[in-house]
Design brief:
It is a single chain. The chain is an alpha+beta fold. The strands form ten sheets. It has a five-stranded mixed β-sheet with strand order 2-13-10-3-9. It has a four-stranded antiparallel β-sheet with strand order 5-4-7-8. A four-stranded parallel β-sheet has the order 27-26-28-29, sandwiched between helices. Helix 12 (430-439) packs across helix 13. The protein is elongated, with a radius of gyration of 34 Å. Bound molecules: 2-(butylsulfanyl)adenosine.
Length: 656
Amino acid sequence: MNPKERAEKLRQQITELRHEYHVQNNPAVTDEVYDSLSRELEALERAHPEIADPNSAIHRVAGAPLPFFQKVKHRERMLSLDNAFSEDELRAWEKRIAKIAKVSQFEYFCELKFDGLAISLVYENGKFIRGATRGDGFIGEDITENLKMIGTIPLVLAKSFPSYIEVRGEAIMKKSVWKKLNAENKKNGLPEFANTRNAAAGSLRQLDSALTKERHLDFFAYEISEIKGAQPKTHSEKHALLRKLGFVVDGLDLVAHSIDEILGFIKRVAEEREKLPFGTDGVVISVNDVGVFEELGVAGKAPRGMIAYKYPAERATTVITDITVSVGRTGVLTPVAHFPPTLVAGSTVSKATLHNMDQINRLDVRIGDTVVIEKAGDVIPAVIEVLPKMRTGKEKKFKMPAKCPICGGAVEQKDIFYYCVDPNCEAKNLRSLGHFVNAFEIYEIGPKVLERLSDEGLITDAADLFTLEVSDLSGLERFGEKSAENIISSIASHRTIPLWRFLYSLGILHVGEETARDLAAHFGMLPKLMKASQEQIESVPNIGPIVSKSVYDYFRTKLHIEYVQKLLSVGIKIEKAKKTEGIFSGKTFVITGTLPSLSRDEAKEKIISAGGKVSGSVSKNTSYVLVGENPGSKFDDATRLGVKTLSEAEFLKLVK
Ligand code: IVH
């Protein structure tokens, strides 16, 4: 789409989302989605200044108070927080404040960043007299009546309260309450809330407090902005006092003395936050000493002594460039959306599952659509929503192919799923994938992993292994970042392989390791073998008519040729086969029994690298039988046919 047209669409969409957010109080998408669209528009306007529009919604500041509530002027401005998205940004923050403060060592207080609505509560002589939203920070909306409906907001403070106190905290909706509310709304044909925060905001910023009561909100206190009498000296003391007065203050916190300790806390929360009963989008870090905190002052609309570490956004918008189909182990066809590399949940992804045809129809996803993708916690990236307003009319509907894209076999529909019904379809044959990874010596990938990758639609054939990214794997349940990295680096390190291993990996009927080695040694290059006639193949020593026909036929089948091309296109490099010459050139070995020190594979490798061959059975053409302990019938065959036998010791003398 041309940039001007795209920018225009983005502006319309953003304006509409802002209206839903600020006026209707019921945004259809999460902030991450809004941010993602705004970022795209900003980037477009930067790249094409001629299409920039000064009236663009992105140049306006949010947060005007709603018209139907009484206005409240906050005695202390309600600030917001600067964000840090990485370790580097946290360290940069520490450096900044160390320059300004008189001290260079800080004690920090770390706590959860609740995903709700900032609230101020004023208590006089122990009684709750007024509660307000943040508004623009200076003037908020008086929502006292609604706040009284929240059970965890004390109406009367516990004994030894100060004569005046203003408490700040977050009104939230628990995940369980939100899910139930959405289920009910869905049943009643009402709009659902995009997240717990929108649900909390929507439940508070409306006129009927009976409705707020039904919504079962909660309140977490985290700050005292003003207090008469004895002044708390640290942020920790404020928390302790709030608890004593009867507020709910969350207990997941830490007093830290270094950025490393803070990072440890951030990691711990990252692991636990999904299981928490309420939504958290980060960690708030404060300079614990109130004196130092105040000395640091305010920059813009945020205090310098506080910062919010934000977890990476789990949703982003992108444009679908193609929809392909992957075939799983059970033959099920999974549609996969492709898009330009997009940053979501801290990693860059370029494809996401569309699950099945039902999902495509439900979302009405088309090629060319602007969509919301999500990569949350343990799930693989998925397309969860289409933004139909972003359409230009050039989008294309997707249809399931009538034939299996892997084997060309028939496709049949059962319920919402489509299956390839050809029993011989390669995609169904996980054993062939197992054979491939063995041939490529990618031992980090066991059968269980292959099963998972296939079930998730991440691979349909071995070539797909080479397009996997760490982010594809680390999204899978019970799949750690470390093991994902190990697997990906192991795949990468086996991209370049000898021709014989490549041939062996193809799983051509009758082509085992030995035949693959023979073919590789004879033809030297893949194209030569692919073009060879059946007679030329049969002229290779040890290859008879059955094997040569099988090899010849393999490279005359369209699907096989396409598969080989796909392997090469994902970056597999074939080493040229070197003809190994050595003391065993022209000699054929058979191994029997257990060798005292060498494993069978080691002995084999030694024979082959000295130019020899290893065969499975003894004939009069066998040069030597290498005999270990408890030899089998091959030893008898050797004696009968008069073939020379070698012990391991004798063999080792020869190879040296
Ligand atoms: S401290 C200086 N502590 O995050 C104002 N804020 O992005 C910050 N928030 O407006 C107050 N959890 O709504 C603080 N534990 C926490 C918080 C928290 C959530 C919200 C608050 C604020 C916003 C800033």
